[in-house]
Design goal:
By secondary structure, the chain is α+β, with helices and mostly antiparallel strands. The chain contains 15 helices and 16 strands. The strands form 3 sheets. Strands 1-5-6-11-10-9-7-8 form an 8-stranded mixed β-sheet, sandwiched between helices. Helix 5 runs parallel beside helix 9. It is elongated and about 90 Å long. The chain binds histidyl-adenosine monophosphate (HAM). Histidyl-adenosine monophosphate binds next to strand 6, strand 10, strand 11 and helix 11.
Length: 427
């Protein structure tokens, strides 16, 4: 016999036991989005490969090693989106949002992203991101709003012990000078760094600061800080971000090593970290990307945003014992003891559903006893027993599992009796 097909490595099935927790997280995020004036968009899952290679940068790990790229039947190179920012900017430009008086466009989306990474706890090849972007304003207070927004989601979800790390990565004005200063520091020590860092020396030396290996971290401890090399504009921008965060009471640490793995960042870069996640400890990351629009062929348009991994949020919440709302259950089960009355039971079920009473029935021919047992196991609040005897008398036996009370109710009054019993009010 052929082997049963399994899912690819690094992808997860989000089953009913978990999906209601996701719904809770997404509902809170959606509410926070509304409260901050962000509008939801749905963007495609695949784009032209060039959008990411030019937008995210050719020398990043994401573009070099992690993209799911294929040639489609029209001979075009297509990539499953590894992140949402480049797509959001593409859409902003393509749909002419830059011409609208409503700036910045405050947009958000949620959905799966794809990266061919080594799977481990909190790191998957298909994962979901909540992605928020404010496109079209330079104001450092928009950076503050974005950082605040991410933290407000976590606050409402009840997450604790989060650390906010903030840095500035400068701009094309000041970064080349800093890069040279950094290279001069690294060069005499380079042979002691890991091969990955050595490979980054020429192409992207800032990323060496981001290496997680202990030896490399120690070696770059004394490296010059980008914050000391910012140009006047970047310095003023960063100072204002810090002041804004302080004014609204956001505690943060300055992390001169925080450079982020995507090349489009300019000025502000930040991450929110959770001590409860292990190695993959970032619950979100983001920053400003004032040159992204130009790198994908558009006019100069500033932007700032963040993305948060939904799996990591749920993992952290479980770890911290946060409330994740309540698992949805049907209100009542319709119990039909005799198979010959199943059609009448179906008709009764339909009448309950029409009136907004969550209900279900057995389709597997279980005995009345085990139908009642499953109703209890599935967390229903009650059961409606509809046998031949009840049907002849045009009644239904209603059992309230909470009070253990059982009553016969005329079929015509069942809906209002149940709505009352379930506290649903009159329909
Ligand atoms: P990123 O840091 O690559 O940034 O990803 C953002 C978040 O997505 C991470 O902090 C993490 O929570 C989650 N994440 C990333 N990779 C994985 C993975 N393999 N498995 C599970 N979760 C993952 C971006 O994607 C930028 N687009 C963020 C941004 C928006 N910057 C400006 N605007």
């Amino acid at each position: 016999m052929a082997e049963t097909i399994k899912g690819p490595r690094g992808v997860r099935d989000i089953l009913p036991e978990e999906s209601w927790k996701w719904r809770y997280v997404l509902e809170i995020a959606r509410k926070v989005a509304e409260d901050f004036g962000y509008q939801e968009v749905h963007l495609p899952i695949f784009e032209h490969t060039e959008l990411f290679s030019r937008g995210i940068g050719d020398t990043t790990d994401v573009v070099e090693k992690e993209m799911y790229t294929f040639i489609d039947k029209g001979n075009r190179s297509i990539t499953l989106r590894p992140e949402g920012t480049a797509s959001m900017m593409r859409s902003y430009l393509e749909q002419g949002m830059h011409k609208s008086p409503r700036q910045p466009a405050k947009l958000w989306c949620v959905g799966p992203m794809f990266r061919y990474e080594r799977p481990q706890k909190g790191r998957y090849r298909q994962f979901w991101q909540l992605d928020f972007e404010a496109i079209g304003a330079k104001d450092p207070l928009v950076d503050v709003e974005i950082i605040h927004l991410s933290l407000e989601i976590y606050r409402r979800l009840g997450l604790r012990n989060l650390e906010v790390a903030v840095n500035s990565v400068g701009c094309p004005q000041c970064r080349p000078l800093y890069r040279e200063g950094l290279r001069s520091f690294l060069e005499p020590r380079l042979d002691k760094f890991c091969p990955t860092c050595q490979g980054r020396y020429d192409r992207n030396p800032l990323r060496i600061l981001d290496c997680k290996k202990e030896d490399c971290k120690n070696l770059s401890e004394e490296a010059p800080s980008v914050l000391e090399h910012l140009c006047k504009e970047c310095r003023e921008h960063f100072d204002m971000v810090c002041r804004g965060l302080e004014v609204i009471g956001i505690h943060y640490t300055l992390d001169k090593r925080l450079v982020r793995g995507l090349d489009y960042y300019t000025k502000t870069a930040y991450e929110v970290l959770s001590g409860d996640l292990g190695a993959q400890n970032a619950v979100c990351g983001g920053g400003r990307y004032d040159n992204l629009a130009e790198s994908i062929g558009g006019p100069a348009v500033p932007g700032v945003g963040f993305a948060a991994g939904v799996e990591r949020i749920v993992l952290t919440m479980e770890q911290q014992g946060c409330s994740l709302g309540e698992e949805p259950r049907v209100d009542v089960m319709v119990i039909c003891p005799e198979p010959e009355h199943r059609l009448q039971a179906m008709e009764f079920l339909a009448s309950l559903r029409k009136e907004g009473i969550g209900s279900s029935m057995d389709y597997t021919g279980k005995s009345m006893k085990s139908q009642l047992k499953s109703a209890l196991q599935e967390g229903a609040s009650g059961a409606c027993i509809l046998g031949g005897d009840e049907l002849t008398r045009q009644v239904v036996g209603i059992k309230n599992f909470r009070t253990q009370e059982q009553k016969e109710v005329p079929l015509a009054e069942a809906v209002s009796y149940l709505r009352n019993m379930l506290g649903l009010g009159n329909s």
